[in-house]
Specification:
This protein is an alpha/beta fold. Helix content is about 50%, strand content about 15%. The strands form four sheets. It has a six-stranded parallel beta sheet with strand order 12-11-10-9-13-14, with helices on both faces. Strands 3-4-7 form a three-stranded antiparallel beta sheet, with helices on one face. Helix 19 links the parallel strand 11 and strand 12. Helix 1 packs across helix 21, helix 6 runs antiparallel to helix 9 and helix 9 runs antiparallel to helix 12. About 35% of the residues are buried.
């Protein structure tokens, strides 16, 4: 259990607190509207549906306050920098922003359903009470205030339907618009739509502007009414509720007067909306800054390397940027991890062919392998850099880096930075040992990164730091011809695939064996595990991190971190 707490404890606490606030708000406002004397006469018409409508509305306000914050990338990067003195486990919660964004969206959807169902019942009961000709309490209340604004029943006509009211009142019409916008946003956010039809996702997700506008306007109609304080002083409902025929005729029971509550949603969402507007203005400013492409190279396996320069651009290891190429798509912005080191005078990314947009990038910058592209280059825009979990690599004495395919890119930046730090005799580097694992399906994928490893391998040997970096390369796919070639040249000093001294392994790593070995070599150490790769691999590594972390607070502990964009 304690091992699980190391990697999941703080995340679980955040979720529990968030759920706890939702439960508290729901229960508190349910009890308030169910038992508050001011709403007694309102409940006489629509019953507990009032509380069932208002309780989720309070939770909607809270979650709509939160929904924009996880997608304010600049805010998150600022918080990560401001929390540099905090423990890594606290900062890495910021890397789960999209997961939290989705959870909040699901919670909004849940409370929206409850809110809508309750109000549909409210409209039906309001309408039935208004059309009733009897002298029951709800019918009498519904006829109050026909010629004034002191009514309790928002339906002011005997000849109408709940559907008509839903599409003609401010609350009803904005409610329909908000609901439709929410349905479209959620359904178009699935992985299938987002990956295959990104522009559909992009356009529909910007319905959040209509959603928030409707949300702020929704309460302006003030259809939820309560008895005024002045009326309650002279009209005691406990005495007068059974004397409806005498209302206004005896001094003890004047006609009760009602008013609507002030709209509150804008107070909840105004702050996040301002922050998000500032976020978009910063992105707009950055995207309009000139980016100079100093080098473009197409590597094997259809991997495009771009080296760029931009005025005022500063980065840290493991950070990422968003790239837009207007000639391919005006709307699409795609995240890419920076492969350059902060010490270099340029920043670079590697873009692997994986879809229409990336194919368009390779076509725009040429198809010739390992040759600088000299033709006219399209303009690109860059937003960032933004922080990730990999920034914390140098905060651990021992770090385990795991990259799958193109997922090696953040570790290129880290390994290059190590090279520069030792070149400048940076003795203040906390990290004393790095284990690096790279898993690829095809031999060509090793070629473009092998030069970095080869240079670092040679450099560390010259500095007498040959034990600083231990790396293992795993090839998971090969044919019979490659197998024969590898077998014939197995005795060579360098690996036949990569040209490195470290021989390539075939198949997948035995993670239990690797973690057990690292734990034995580094007892009483906090070890950072960093992954840039698919979710199934993340699940395995997280399980091993928990399994091989010791219960003893002074023992070895593996802290799992995953890149999230």
């Amino acid at each position: 259990m304690s091992n699980w707490l190391i990697n999941k404890g703080l995340s679980a606490l955040v979720i529990v607190v968030w759920l706890g606030i939702n439960v508290f708000l729901f229960v508190y406002y349910y009890m308030f509207y169910e038992y508050n004397p001011e709403y007694y006469y309102t409940r006489a018409i629509i019953g507990s549906a009032l509380a069932w409508a208002r309780a989720p509305a309070a939770c909607l306000n809270f979650n709509c306050l939160l929904i924009l914050l996880p997608v304010c990338r600049n805010l998150l990067s600022f918080l990560r920098g401001s929390c540099s003195c905090c423990r890594c486990s606290a900062r890495k919660q910021l890397d789960k922003n999209i997961t939290f964004h989705k959870l909040v969206a699901y919670m909004i959807a849940l409370h929206t359903v409850i809110h809508i169902v309750a109000h549909l019942l409210n409209f039906e009961w309001f309408n039935n009470s208004r059309q009733s000709k009897e002298q029951t309490l709800d019918a009498v209340l519904s006829r109050i205030g026909d010629n004034t604004s002191l009514w309790v029943n928002p339906i002011r006509s005997d000849q109408t339907t709940p559907t008509y009211i839903a599409f003609t009142t401010v609350a009803g019409l904005t409610g329909v618009i908000i609901t439709l916008a929410l349905i479209v946003m959620i359904t178009s956010s699935t992985d299938t739509i987002r990956r295959s039809y990104f522009e559909v996702f992009w356009f529909t997700h910007h319905l959040f502007v209509i959603f928030f506008a409707g949300l702020v306007i929704h309460g302006v109609g003030r259809i939820v009414r309560h008895q005024t304080d002045a009326s309650m002083e002279v009209h005691n409902y406990t005495f007068c509720q059974n004397r409806t025929a005498e209302w206004g005729e005896i001094p003890e029971c004047p006609v009760p007067l009602f008013k609507g509550g002030d709209p509150m949603t804008w107070k909840w969402v105004l702050g996040p909306m301002i922050l998000y507007v500032c976020e978009r203005l910063i992105r707009l400013y950055r995207s309009n800054q000139r980016v100079v492409i100093t080098k473009a190279v197409v590597h094997p396996s259809k991997v495009l390397e771009l080296q760029m320069q931009k005025k005022g651009f500063k980065m840290e290891v493991g950070q990422y940027i968003f790239i837009n190429c207007p000639s391919i798509s005006q709307l699409e912005w795609h995240p890419f991890t920076l492969t350059s080191a902060p010490e270099e005078d340029y920043f670079s990314v590697y873009i692997r062919s994986a879809g229409d947009w990336t194919d368009g990038m390779l076509e725009a910058f040429g198809e010739s392998e390992n040759k600088a592209i000299e033709k006219m280059q399209p303009r690109i825009a860059v937003d960032g850099p933004f922080g990730t979990a990999s920034e914390d690599v140098f905060r651990y004495e021992v770090s385990v880096l795991v990259g799958a395919g193109i997922g090696v890119t953040p570790f290129a930046s880290i390994l290059k930075s190590i090279w520069y730090k030792y070149e400048n005799s940076d003795a203040g580097l906390l990290t004393k040992k790095i284990y690096f694992y790279w898993i690829c399906r095809e031999t060509q994928a090793f070629e473009w990164f092998a030069d970095v490893l080869r240079s670092l391998e040679s450099h560390m040997e010259q500095l007498g730091k040959h034990n600083f970096l231990s790396y293992k390369l795993y090839l998971t796919g090969w044919d019979s011809t490659q197998a024969t070639h590898i077998k014939v040249h197995f005795d060579k000093e360098t690996d036949v695939v990569t040209g490195l001294k470290q021989k390539t392994h075939y198949g997948r790593p035995n993670w239990d064996k690797e973690f057990q070995m690292i734990a034995q070599v580094h007892p009483k150490t906090s070890i950072g595990v960093f992954l840039c790769g698919p979710q199934p691999l993340a699940k395995v590594l997280e399980q091993c991190s928990n399994k091989y972390s010791e219960v003893n607070p002074l023992g070895v502990h593996f802290h799992f971190n995953k890149e999230n964009f």
